[in-house]
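ok so I'm stuck.
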Amino acid sequence: MLELRKTNSDSTDFKSLVKQLDDFLKITDGDDHAFYNQYNGLQNINNVIIAYKDSTPVGCGAFKKFSKNTVEIKRMFTTEAARGQGVASQILEALEQWAKTSGFTFSILETGIRQIEAINLYKKCNYQITENYGQYQGISESLCFKKEL
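replied:
not stuck anymore, here's the structure
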């Protein structure tokens, strides 16, 4: 059974999962990794969900405030062994509910165009492609999404 726990970016399990995510992204992002990595710090991330299966952390995601009514989804990751089991969808849904009960009405996120599994997840979860925002404006390797909560 999957257990979802709320925490923050100080969590040791979260930091471990983020390390695995960064190692994965170094490969898939290739030469673009340094650009993206500069926007993936853990500062200002106070809302984290970690998924546990049999007490083992198997996935994570977070959000941070982007504007008065919008959160940005960050650091979504599922371990290779847990992929294809709906873990990411459950984490994303829990993050959306947490953001909604915290008074936010929209969720945005960015992923790289080479992150096919992530793109498919966000489309499946009713995110719509939107114009690139913030630091991703004009970056053709970025794909941004938005969803009304």
